[in-house]
Amino acid sequence: MGRRRRLHIPNAIVHITLKCHDSAMLLLGEADKELYLAILDETAREMDYGVVSFCLQDNHLHHILETPPDIEGHTLSEFMFRVLNRFSHRFNQRHRRTGTVWNGRFRDTAWMSRNQLLALEILLWYVEANTWRRRVRPVPPWEWPWCSAYRLFHDRTEQPATRLQDYVNRLYRARGDPLGEFRDLLSQQRPDWSKRARQSRFINLDRRTELAVQHDLKHLNESIQSASQRSWKLEVARYSMLAQPTIQLVI
Questions:
Q1: Which of 91, 151, 190, 217 could share a disulfide with 156, CB 3.0–4.6 Å?
Q2: Whether the Cβ atoms of residue 33 and residue 27 lie closer than 8 Å to each other
C-alpha cells in the first residue's frame, strides 16, 4: 500500500507531531532541544512559516504552524524535510552516530483556518499541556522550558519566535486577563469543551442563535462522552463546527 499523499493548504494552521526513532529518548539533552528549536526558527524565517506553538518532549515533539500564502517551494512537506534533515545531520555529527533520528514520517493531524479559534484552543491545550498529562513525572507547562507556553508565562524571548501571544490575546482579551485565562485552561486535565463553546462569542460569525440550534452542544458532548475511545481529535472535529463550518481535518 502506497503512502498517503501529503495535503498542503496555504495560509492555514496545521498541527504536527513526530516521534524519535523507536521512541528513544534522543531529545533528552538540553543542547539537543536548543539545536532543534534554533533550526525550526531558522527554517521558519527562510520559508515564511509562522510558529504558533511547540512542545518538545524527550522522545517526541509537537508543533502548531501557520503556512505561508505561497505554495511553490513552500509546502509543509518541504518545510519539515528541511527542519528534520538539518537536525538529523547536526545531531549525528554531535553524537558521532549514524542512522535515522525520526520514527518515520511526521503526522499532520489537523488543518484549519487562522480564524478557527475554538478548534485552535483545543489544540493549544493539547500541545502546551502535553507534559502535564503524561503518566511518568508530569510537569506543568509553566515549569517545562521546552514549550512555548513556558516562554510566554516567563516573558522569555529565545528562539523560535512564536505567535502564541497573538492567539492568546485573540482568544481571551475580552475576559480581561489573557495569560491568566490561558494558564487556567492548561491547568485542567480535561476541560469542559461544551461549556467553553457555549461561552464563546462564535468568533467572526453573526449567527450565534442559528449555530447554537444547528449544532446541539448537549448532543455533541454526549456523543463524545459515550465514545469508546475519547480523544482530543474527536473533540476538535466536533467543536470546530461551532465557529466555522469550512474547517478541514486530516486524522
A1: 151
A2: yes
